[in-house]
Design a protein that fits this description.
alpha+beta, Peroxidase, domain 1, Glutaredoxin, 4-stranded mixed β-sheet, 8 helices, 13% strand
């Protein structure tokens, strides 16, 4: 079974076992942990390394989640993953859990990719524009891809809006080729 499928299954099981009133605190903790793991290269590589023993991985994770509002729930997840030798999926499960929760609450996932890091005010402006256009039930995810050269791409469901410089250069090049 692929890691993506396994992560999704664990995330759905996690969602199903958590009480409704605990979902928001678990979501906040999952987002915080995802950011922490994403920013810490050592932690991410430790979790993914097949050479690191599960005992060490679980001890590190238990220390990281210590004191969080959803510590009890996350302890159960870590224990289950340790037993099943799947601790390498911890970060992916947290990300999938966020997607599952938003999906169950009726949110549509939107991915905004820009050529450069943008400020909070610009993010708010983009969010406001997209909410006005597509409704308030959007879960926005911002990414950076320098190959766009400038501008941005927005993917909402199966719809893609490409406002990148690379796309405009490509269109111009195709038009010039067509004229020759």
């Amino acid at each position: 079974m692929s890691n993506k499928i396994a992560s999704k299954r664990y995330a759905v099981a996690l969602f199903d076992t958590v009480k409704n009133e605990e979902l928001d605190s678990l979501l906040a903790d999952a987002q915080s942990l995802s950011t922490t793991i994403g920013e810490s290269e050592e932690l991410a590589s430790l979790l993914k390394s097949p050479l690191t023993k599960n005992e060490i991985k679980s001890n590190v994770l238990l220390n990281v989640i210590s004191g969080l509002a959803s510590e009890r729930i996350l302890n159960g997840l870590v224990t289950t993953l340790k037993k099943n030798k799947r601790l390498n999926l911890f970060e992916a499960i947290l990300n999938e859990f966020q997607d599952v929760l938003f999906e169950k609450r009726g949110y549509q996932k939107a991915k905004v990719t820009t050529a450069h890091t943008i400020g909070e005010q610009t993010k708010k402006n983009i969010q406001e524009l997209l909410h006005n256009q597509y409704g308030s039930k959007l879960n926005l995810e911002f990414q950076v891809n320098k190959s766009l050269l400038g501008g941005m791409t927005v993917i909402i469901g199966s719809k893609m809006i490409d406002l990148s410089i690379i796309n405009q250069v490509s269109k111009f090049t195709n038009n010039v080729k067509g004229d020759i």
